Amino acid sequence: QKEVEQNSGPLSVPEGAIASLNCTYSDRGSQSFFWYRQYSGKSPELIMFIYSNGDKEDGRFTAQLNKASQYVSLLIRDSQPSDSATYLCAVTPLGRFGAGTRLTVKP
Amino acid sequence: NAGVTQTPKFQVLKTGQSMTLQCAQDMNHNSMYWYRQDPGMGLRLIYYSASEGTTDKGEVPNGYNVSRLNKREFSLRLESAAPSQTSVYFCASSELRGGQPQHFGDGTRLSIL
User: Fold this and answer.
1) Cα(B41)–Cα(A6) distance, rounded to whole angstroms?
2) Interface contact flag, A44 B43, Cβ < 8 Å
3) What is the rounded end-to-end Cα distance, in angstroms, of chain A?
4) What are A102's strand-pairing partners?
5) Which tens digits make up the pLDDT trace of B49-58?
6) pLDDT score of A7
7) How many angstroms separate the CA atoms of B103 and A44, rounded?
8) Helix-strand-coil percent breakdown of chain B, rounded to 5?
9) Strand A101-106 with A11-14, pairing
10) Which residue of A has its CA nearest to B33?
11) What is the spatial distance between Cα B5 and Cα B45, in angstroms, rounded to a whole number?
12) What are the φ/ψ torsions at residue A82 (nearest 5 degrees)?
């Protein structure tokens, strides 16, 4: 079982819709959860991080954490074509990344 | 305002050759990391350094060595390159709680023939 799992996609949503990206993890001791965006051929960029159960909002992005169910999700509201990228989930222990979900936002 | 700078950006090596990938950050971060990224594998941690003078193995350290020269610089060395080390290598730095990387360099695309 992989330590951090993401649906590889591709996930396709129409422009203006909500994109929902999910990540599950196996280590119940994980304390910190991170979402990165990676455009094709570029390096990852940190979007947001969450430490506590519940929701954390930052602009059009919302991270949701449920430690009891061992999942963390990223919602992107009002999706734009510029949001088309691969989204990577990372959790502690240090350095554990999922393989990423490729998102396509269609105009 | 460079952030994390990696050199070189591209490199082709022959099997058995050695080389050092350079990384420097100008954000005064304590933590620095080296990752490799292969298709379908996501990012895998090779080595990290929590502070100047300390280094620790990550998920895939075999075949690599690192040096944290000072707070700014963290280099990755391949002593005897193998085709399996063909990958994109990213350096990163961070000051975040939880220790995950905060800023990445542009990457080094390395091919071993």
Assistant:
1) 11
2) yes
3) 37
4) A86
5) 999 889 999 9
6) 86
7) 8
8) 5, 50, 45
9) parallel
10) A95
11) 18
12) -70, -10
Give the gap in angstroms from C-alpha A39 to the nearest C-alpha of chain B.
Answer: 12
Give me the amino acid identity at A67: K
Contacts of A59 (CB under 8 A, 6+ apart): none
Eight-class DSSP state of A18? P
How far apart, in whole angstroms, are the C-alpha atoms of residue A23 and residue A6? 5
CB spacing of A94 vs B43 below 8 angstroms? no
What is the tens place of the pLDDT at every residue in B66-112? 999 899 999 999 999 999 999 999 999 999 876 789 999 999 999 99
Selected for mutation to probe chain B from A25, A43, A48, A96 (highest B CB count within 10 Å) is: A43
B8/chain A closest Cα distance in angstroms: 15
Q: What are the C-alpha distances in Å from A15 to residues A49, A63, B38, B51?
A: 25, 20, 30, 43
Contact A44 B90 (CB under 8 A): yes
CA distance A83 to B40: 20
The CA distance from A78 to A56, in Å, is 17
CA A74 → CA A33, A50, A62, distances in Å? Answer: 11, 10, 6
Reported confidence tier of residue A2, pLDDT bands at 50, 70, 90: low
How many angstroms separate the CA atoms of B45 and B104, rounded?
A: 13
Q: Of B40, B98, B103, which is closest to A32 when you measure between CB atoms? A: B98
pLDDT band at A1 (very low <50, low <70, confident <90, very high): low
| DSSP conformational letter for B59 | S
